[in-house]
Amino acid sequence: ALLSVFCIISAGQAINDYFDAHIDKKQKKTRPLASGKISPNTALVFSILLFALGIVFASFLNELTFQIAVFFSALLFVYSAAMQKIKFVGNVVVALGVGFTFIFGASVYTITPLVLMVALSAFFSNWAREVMKDVEDVEMDKGHKITLPHVLARNDVNALAIVLVLLTLAAGYLPTLFAGAGILYTILVSATNVVFLLAAKDLIRDKPASSASLMKKGMLVGLLAQLSLIFRFL
């Protein structure tokens, strides 16, 4: 399961670089493709091999893990090839992929309500950060990708990000309320939520870079909260 996720996510990064090479040549010239260290054909073959390996590893587990691996491999390829310029769609794709990482792991054995709660929290927090990152990169993306700040008023984008943060906060407490997650999880997820609220505050104060950075730091604390559930239910 670990190898499958590792290969598919790595393949997604590689195929993204393959289809983004023309943009990176202007904005991120040190990347392998943009700098000429790796040829486009090599990157394409490398990505396809990693997708195939990820699917093969998943096929050794059970039918559901195989189906999830095939679906996300196809989704990541199609997104990079055909939907990448519509980046606000990509925001959801990325967040969905992070949330489904938990579901994929659980599908090896059984998908419980607790797993779905954790996945939901991961989905909303990553979606919120993707939106904040788009606000930070609005000028850099102009002419290359269509992001939410390009199609909506700034206040509307901020409002969406804040709603997603609030949904993250609510989802974070679901394991405490409905799955007996315990005190350690509740303390850690509360600390996570404080950081997320500070990120929302910075976004409102027109500090998108700080906001996106705080969301990432909050996710690290949130990951500790999620890891504490392993010891709680061993």
In short:
The chain is mostly helical. The protein has twelve helices and no strands.
- Which descriptor suits the 3D outline? flat
Structural class: mainly alpha
Helix content: over 70%
Number of helices in the DSSP assignment: 12
Q: Largest beta sheet, briefly? A: none
Order of helices and strands: HHHHHHHHHHHH
Rg of Cα set: 19 Å
What labels would you give this structure?
234 residues; mainly alpha; 12 helices; 84% helix; 0% strand
Please tell me about this protein's structure.
The protein is mostly helical. The protein is 84% helix and 0% strand. The two termini are 19 Å apart.
Architecture blueprint of SSEs:
Layout: H1 2-27, H2 32-35, H3 40-59, H4 63-83, H5 87-107, H6 113-136, H7 138-141, H8 148-151, H9 154-172, H10 174-178, H11 183-204, H12 208-233
Helix pairs in contact: 1-3, 1-4, 3-4, 4-5, 5-6, 6-9, 6-12, 9-11, 11-12
